[in-house]
Amino acid sequence: MVKEIDWTVSAMSNMPSVLLHDILQLRSEIFVVEQKCIFMDVDGIDPIALHLCGHHQGRLLAYARCIPPDVESLEAVIGRIVVRLEIRGRGLGHALVSRAVQVVRENWGDVGIRIGAQIRLKKFYESHGFLDLQEPYDEDGIGHIKMLRHSQNTNEVDAKC
After folding, report:
1. E strand residue ranges, the chain
2. DSSP-derived pairing of the beta strands 59-67 and 50-56
């Protein structure tokens, strides 16, 4: 893994404009260009989300958007999870997801967490405690599944109801 990652969590309201630029550029680079998906990335959620950024030597390498409960679902949502292409496969994705779960817990307590994961990454997210909700769907030509990480106080049966 890349050593010396500087992790920051920011609300959009107190984020330097250069950081917002870097976030939107990275999301566009991966989700629009690399994955060849034309979609509305700036969707109105960013102002109410927390933005987790991993920098190395001033360069944004990893990012995730943490959305509070009751915005998109009863659970918190972690989305826009991204690691720069040239740095993948070195463990940074695991560090990013672990940090994102920590951000949710620190800010909104012991709540369930939902993600929309690419099907090919199912095992990766399962290794972080997420369960497949058996709801596959197509998003911009890429197969996805809904996944849920339960709160510590909720049993599996209750969370699926």
Report:
1. 6-11, 50-56, 59-67, 76-83, 113-118, 131-139, 142-149
2. antiparallel
Question: Which residues are CB-neighbours of 41 under 8 A, at least 6 positions away?
Answer: 24, 27, 28, 31, 32, 80
* pLDDT of 108: 96
- Cα separation, 46 vs 79, in Å, equals 11
Q: Which residue has the tokens 């969590």?
A: 9
Instruction: Give CA–CA dist 73/58, Å, rounded.
Output: 34
In this predicted structure, the answer to whether residue 156 has a pLDDT above a threshold of 50 is no
Q: How far is residue 130 from each of residues 15, 30, 35, 138, 152, measured CA to CA in Å? A: 30, 23, 23, 19, 13
pTM: 0.88
Torsion of CA 131, 137, 138, 142, to 10 degrees: 20
pLDDT digits (tens, 9 = 90+) for 23-73: 999 999 988 888 877 777 888 999 999 999 999 999 999 999 999 998 877
The pLDDT of residue 35 is 81
Output the six-digit token pair for 99. 């940090």
What is residue 37's three-state secondary structure?
coil
